Structures are given as structure tokens and as C-alpha cells.
Amino acid sequence: MRLRRDILSCAAVFLLMGTLAACALPASTVQIIYQQGRSVVRLEADDQAGGGTGQGLNTHPAMLDPTHLSKVLHGIGIRSEAGFMATVLSLAVPAEPVFKEGELAVLAPILAKGLFQAGPSERVSFTFWSAQLARRAAPLAGSVAIRDRYLRFVLSDHPSIGWQDPEDPSAPKLYDLEFLREGFLRPGTEEDRKGSYKTRPMIEIDYQRYLTSIAEQKGQSKEAGGPPQVTTREMSAREAAPSGSEALKDVQRQVKELTESNQELRAKLKELMERREEVQEQSKSATEELAMLRQELAETKQALADKVLELNRLKSKSGGSGKGKK
Asked: Which DSSP string do the residues of 41-82 spell out, in sequence order?
């Protein structure tokens, strides 16, 4: 009886230890909330939230309207450390938007959903392959999180990044993040926005104050009788350059258009080169096959000539033998 009680006691202890160990194990750190082809959006552990990082936890779950989130993300720009247009025109190329309108139409609702589902120690990461021809070389990849009144945005990859260290081709490409309204960025985070070989750039935007500012501007415009109708591109150019002459803004717009045109031409040139290589490969194969046929024909002709000579010798020998018998 005593042995049985001891066995049951040990079993209970082991069962309790197993239960405590299971509770101590962390839950799955990745949860996919969207996947379409190679594009995926997921919840993952944020290594910059709480723990031993010395930073606070994220303010999740966060409820953010997809339209508002799209407006904030549309204001984020990317600038390569060196670029083609900067070399040709010898001037500072303005940062181009990280996201295009069509891309945000797909991503913003999914990211907003992820922010609502995320926990305080999680962030929403994304890898998105654009359908636009000039942006298919690489994915849009990064993460978003909300901490207090700031939206924290990290960009890890982008199709328009063109600069890379020639001494180390395997090293990540360098680029900086900007926002069209500098005054809404978190003070003291200038270095965080610059990419390095160790960390990807991060930008922190006071999104609540920025959205309030936009709403107030719209309210003032309505009171004044409504603003003149302008295109989305013109609005982006005006917000990106709140000061300066119209000539400067016009030059910046033209440089941006030339940059996009250059990227599209490079993509088309790459496609044409691939087609050319394919045609050359087919031509090479046909040339080799023709050479083989010619070689086989020459060998056949030589064999036929040899057989004719042999036949003539046999005929001659046969004729000589007949004369001798007579």
C-alpha cells in the first residue's frame, strides 16, 4: 500500500511539473492573417517591445480605420543612399513614396486588422509582391506597430532600392526613411530612420496628431468654399514640399516622373535582353544541329564514294578473270 501511495505521489508531482512547464512555454510567435501567393501578412513577436530591450510594450490591440492608416503610410518616403538620377542630374532626388495607391488599397485593411488582433509584445509584419511592372524585382517587406500615439514603421526590403556596397554584394542595400511632414515625427529618432548594415531603418509618426491636422485642413477648406480639384500626384507633391517656389516643386515632380520612367525602361530592357538571350540560344542550337547534319552528309558521301570504288574494283577483277578462261 505504501509503495502504491509513493508511486501515485510521484506521478502527481510529475504531472504538476509538466503542467507548469507547458504554461511556461511561449505560445506560437507567428500567426498568419493573410496569404495570397508569395504575399503574406502575419503577427510575430516584436523584439523591440518590453522584455530586456529597455523599451515599453506596444499599445495593442489598436483600432485604426484602414482609410486613416492608408493616409499615414502614404506619407512615408524612401530615399536610396545613391541613385541613378542623382548621378545624372547632380542634385538631391526627392524621396519617393514607399507605397503606391493600389498597393495600399490591398494592404491597409489587412494591416489595420492585424493591429487590432496583435498583442502588446507583437507587431504586424508583411511581405507584399506588387503587381506593377516596375516593382516586381523585389517585395515590399517590413512591419508596423502602435506604441502610445506613435505608429512605428520598419522597412526591410523595397523594389526601388538600387544602391549596394560594391565591396560586399551580399550586404543589405542602404536607404533612409522620411515623412512628408517632418514635424509629426518623434523627436530624437533621426538616426533610427537611417539604414545600416546591422539594422533596418525605422520611422515613428505621431499618427493621431497628423490625422487631426488633415481633418482640420479639410474643415477649413470646406468653410472657404472648397479646394480646387487637383490630382492625387499633385496633392502628394504639395504636401511633400510645404515650402519653396513653384519652380522647385515642378523640378522635383519631373525628377520623380523621370525616376519612375527609368525604372520601367530598365524593367523592359531586362525583359528584352532575356528574350534576346533566348533567341540566341535557339539560334546556337539550330547552328549546331545544322553543322552535325553537314558532317553526317559528308561522311555519307565519303562512304558512298568508297563503295563505288570498291564496286569498280570488283567489276574489273571479275572481267579480268573471265578473259583468262577463254
From this structure: EEEEE-TTSSGGGS------S----HHHHHHHHHTEEEEESS
Q: Is residue 137 part of a domain?
A: yes
Burial of 119 (0-12, 13-18, 19+ CB in 10 A): middle
> Rounded to 5 degrees, what angle do the CA atoms 46, 56, 59 make?
75
Asked if residue 66 is part of any domain, the answer here is yes
In a domain, 119, yes or no: yes
- Could you tell me the pTM of the whole model? 0.57
pLDDT score at 170: 59
The whole-angstrom distance between residue 159's C-alpha and the CA centroid of its chain comes to 5
pLDDT, tens digit, for every residue of 52-67? 555 789 999 999 999 9
Specify the pLDDT at position 173: 66
Kindly give, in sequence order, each residue whose CB lies less than 8 Å from that of residue 264, ignoring residues fewer than 6 positions away: 133, 134
Higher pLDDT, 78 or 298: 78
The runs of H, that is alpha helices, within the chain are 2-24, 66-74, 84-89, 101-117, 207-223, 232-240, 246-325
| Domain coverage including residue 71 | 28-226
Residue 24 pLDDT > 70? no
CA 261 – CA 71 distance, rounded (Å):
25
* Residue 134 resides in a domain: yes
pLDDT of 271 strictly over 70: yes
- Please state at what angle helix 207-223 crosses helix 66-74, rounded to 10 degrees: 100
Rounded CA-CA distance 151/148 in Å is 8
Quick check: 25 pLDDT over 50? no
Closest CA to 210 of 69, 109, 113: 69
d(CA 143, CA 31): 14
